[in-house]
Amino acid sequence: xxxxxxxxxxxxxxxxxxxxxxxxxxxxxxxxxxxxxxxxxxxxxxxxxxxxxxxxxxxxxxxxxxxxxxxxxxxxxxxxxxxxxxxxxxxxxxxxxxxxxxxxxxxxxxxxxxxxxxxxxxxxxxxxxxxxxxxxxxxxxxxxxxxxxxxxxxxxxxxxxxxxxxxxxxxxxxxxxxxxxxxxxxxxxxxxxxxxxxxxxxxxxxxxxxxxxxxxxxxxxxxxxxxxxxxxxxxxxxxxxxxxxxxxxxxxxxxxxxxxxxxxxxxxxxxxxxxxxxxxxxxxxxxxxxxxxxxxxxxxxxxxxxxxxxxxxxxxxxxxxxxxxxxxxxxxxxxxxxxxxxxxxxxxxxxxxxxxxxxxxxxxxxxxxxxxxxxxxxxxxxxxxxxxxxxxxxxxxxxxxxxxxxxxxxxxxxxxxxxxxxxxxxxxx
Length: 429
Prior knowledge:
Blueprint: H1 3-15, H2 20-33, E1 37-38, E2 52-57, E3 61-66, H3 72-75, E4 78-83, E5 88-99, E6 102-110, E7 123-133, E8 138-144, E9 178-181, H4 190-202, E10 206-218, E11 223-225, E12 231-234, H5 237-251, E13 259-264, H6 281-290, H7 294-299, E14 302-306, E15 309-310, E16 333-335, H8 346-358, E17 364-366, H9 378-386, E18 389-394, E19 396-398, E20 405-408, H10 411-424
Parallel strand pairs: 1-2, 4-13, 4-14, 14-18, 15-19, 16-17
Antiparallel strand pairs: 2-3, 3-13, 5-6, 6-9, 7-8, 7-10, 11-12, 12-20, 16-18, 19-20
């Protein structure tokens, strides 16, 4: 895959994936088109050599893998991990709010959201809805309103003269978005609006809405930014970018070596769930693939946890260690923390640097300032669960956890090239 095509498809993937459910559906379609076979956790598996497979859990996490042509017990598995979720605002179960003729929705903050950028944006709504259909069956369906339907208006500076000096956000009272105006006699509920949208999107006749998991999102599409198109801006770059890179790497390997991609949900809230990295999903897949030889296979394996890194901000240079300030478009960032917030060790970092150097590609290193707390990823959780040698790496970005984030337009492709080589390398450890 060439650089221009890589970024073009990246923009399409980001635009098509407003929620983890939509991201996984997009990945599933891509894998099926490439000849990967879908597995069902409820059924027996019979895996063939040299074949690609994938399995999902909850519709928000996915494991895709190539079995390779060799004995996985002695050749090991080249693994890449990412996560499908991003910080956002989710609609509450009983969200209807009516005030002075405006219909608003109560929302809950998901993950560590930068809240101020959510004001004054054209917002839409997407996610999964569980319904009772006209035949009395419980089923799930995806919805995406696509057009702007909501807006969280700022309070005018005339009414808050200190807004530029001390802007704080109360998630309970400041964030409910305006979605329409209603007369006092109008009894339309949010559930009524959902039924209308489901009928419009899928033609499904819904007798009752039983539950939903819906997120607001910015309708502005992913786009190049910069006088020379040096950057790409989008929502949910953390961490759909890594999902896309991992997927393209898996698809473009030779297929001779055993390789795997796992994209977990719920990383932004701690990963403790059935489909999160601290849950049993990946381990269960490996049990069924490797059987009694799992421990030996894992001992020959390596995991690269791909999750975006903090690029050094030119307006806030003092927020970075002076020797570890990653620059956009100067290569992926090896993330190191000796307190195990990242799982990188000298061996896993060495493997990546060696492959990158062989390809003549740049790489950087990140260590958080010694007087600041360090974030984390699925890397330490996966390493702890499986006992697999792990590297934490990511593309440097600005605006992490904002409604819109920025990366260099070169770095994603650079990481893709290294991960593709990693996934098809005969010997990793």
